[in-house]
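Form 7-S
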Amino acid sequence: MSIEKKVIKVDNGVKINFLGAIEKNTVMTMVQNCATGQCECMSDETKKKIKDMKVDGKDGDVKLSLEGDVSVEEIKEALSKSKVIK
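Output:
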């Protein structure tokens, strides 16, 4: 089973909804890697724009909210490069 990623622009940033073969723990790991600078999926410019990241939901239906002046395109590009979420 694959992972479906829906990236939506919201007032204060971007929201990602992961559906399918996804565990909440996997998304938490990705967020932790980004927060500590261990991810290579996002440009430094994009990282600087993100003020906050929140994970919600459950396995199979995980939501990630990114607060900041980021675009859907930037986040889709970062997701495509993520080694944690394939």
